[in-house]
Amino acid sequence: MCMAETVGVVNLALGTLVRPTSILVVGATGTLGRQVVRRALDEGYEVRCLVRPRPAPADFLRDWCAIFVNVDLSKPETIPATLVGIHTIIDCATGRPEEPIRKVDWEGKVALIQCAKAMGILKYVFFSIHNCDKHPEVPLMEIKYCTEKFLQDSGLNHIIIRLCGFMQGLIG
């Protein structure tokens, strides 16, 4: 399951100066992502948000003065331009139940990590799931664990935070 194919990314010139306050939040409209965006803006960070292209845009991000870009993680060619000028990626994303889990949460994250490496991103923060290594029978947990391993092997400066589950699907 944890085997990743290399996505064709161009190794752009490393060393471009970026402000340490420039961050990209992946999954900015989700339960966790919107909290990260709000807090980062309140603390003075320059926040760019990666959001899925969809008919109902995330107007609240615009109202908060965050910049958002529509990117489809299942289309790796849409990722590199989003990373220009970014110091830190904060990855809060998880696919929606109606999306193919492998396409977004595994292939999309592999492409994102590979692009981050190629673009010289200085820090990658990945939100994973508590005990994901103990439950390979649960597809999302297995993918989160595999993503952790892929990120660790990438050589990127990274932080992995394992959170307990969100229950928004159960709370009306």
From TrEMBL:
Location within or outside the cell: Plastid
Record-annotated membrane-spanning stretches: none
InterPro entries for the chain: HCF244-like, NAD(P)-bd_dom_sf, NmrA-like
Keywords in alphabetical order: Photosynthesis, Photosystem II, Plastid
Entry's Gene Ontology BP terms: lignan biosynthetic process; photosynthesis
Keyword hit for Nuclease: no
Chief subcellular location: plastid
Keyword Plastid: yes
Domain of life: Eukaryota
Domain NmrA-like: residue ranges: 22-157
Pfam families to which the protein is assigned, alphabetical: NmrA (PF05368)
Any one cellular-component term (Gene Ontology): plastid
Annotated protein name in UniProt: NmrA-like domain-containing protein
Species annotation: Quercus rubra (Northern red oak)
